[in-house]
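Writing this down once: the sequence line spells out the residues, with the fold written below as integer tokens. I am pasting one below:
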Amino acid sequence: MKTPAAHKAIKVIVATIAAVVLLGIGGAIGRFQTDADIEPVAATAPATVTVTKTATPPPATTITAPAPPPVTVTYTPPTPTGFGDGIYAVGSDIQPGRYKTEGADRCYFARLKDDSGSFESIIANNNLSGPGSVTVKKGEFFEVKGDCTWVKA
């Protein structure tokens, strides 16, 4: 029978021999292998990763622009071109005041207290054959007949 110490020594010797044999076989295999002996391994695509994140909007931008310059509108009433034949209410159709005409061959005017057409409503009248003027008051009527044009003086 063998003693435990001898038993232990045998185990160490067997383990050492086994390690040398394995290393020798591994070295021999590695020495005889070439790049041609190595098979390429297909690369695997990386796994798809989905990341979900709530987007935060960018901060609001305020743009301040100067106000446009004020617009000035000037109204110039048209120059009166005058008026001819008709009966005009002074104060609504025409303004009170003095009117003039260059006259014409036929030029009749009348200041009237009303527009009834009666002879009694005539305040003043005239047939002009040349330039003339007349002053009418608010509330009167001004009648014009003929080829003359009257303008505010």
About this structure: Residues 4-37 form one domain.
